[in-house]
Amino acid sequence: EYHQLAKKISDNRNKAGLELAQKVEEELTFLKMPRAKFKVKIESIYQNGDNNIYHQNGYDKVSFVVAINNDKFEDIAKVASGGELSRFMLALKVALINIKSVPTIIFDEIDSGIGGATASAVGRRLKFLAEKLQIFVVTHQPQIASQASQHFRISKIMVTNQQHQQVVNTVIEKLDEETSKPLFPVEKTLAPQPGSDHNLRA
Which residue of 16, 53, 151, 158 has the smallest Cβ count within 10 Å? Predict the structure, then answer.
């Protein structure tokens, strides 16, 4: 009976794995990674023909493998950079948005090595994901920051010769100034910087 149930679970996993891979690759294209490939790798734990091994999750070993710039699939943690790994995670979470998930996700370095249209696409997908989950994003990109509903500025300050981290809630009146800083690293002015208003309303 165990083997019958395990085979049924394995068949369902293989079917769901193909569907998930297709959805993730669609999201990766939206996130400006059109050449990236994603696969759910499902292997049997019966490597030596010994089928007397029993496991509560069936006889499959499941992992995620990717091919970024070629056709060779490898473990996602080995080939993806920090920014790429974050985008893979984002694509995976969007693909599984209707599946029960952890209530809060933190994305750090998701803007690593990107800008322009790619940053805008990432920002829009984060906003879409935030409709179902609580999302925290550490970013330097105004295209991403402008999609958030709340903003906090994190900076380093010196207090009695000791360095501290300061987190300040950025009110809406200051938001235009803050999101323009990564685009225009100059002394602040009274007038909004060109292009920042567009970011806020994108």
Answer: 158
- Distance (Å, whole) CA 199 – CA 176: 9
Q: What are phi and psi of 196, to 5 degrees?
A: -70, -35
Smallest Cα–Cα separation from 143: which of 59, 104, 90, 200?
Answer: 200
The tens digit of pLDDT for each residue in 80-116 reads 777 788 889 899 999 998 887 788 988 887 888 888 8
| Contacts (Cβ under 8 Å, ≥6 apart) of 140 | 111, 182
Of the candidates 142, 156, 155, 152, the one whose C-alpha atom is nearest the C-alpha of residue 192 is 142
- State the helix-helix crossing angle for 82-95 and 116-129, rounded to 10 degrees: 40
DSSP one-letter string for 42-63: EEES-TTS------TT-SEEEE
What distance, in Å, lies between the first and last C-alpha atoms of the chain? 56
pTM: 0.73
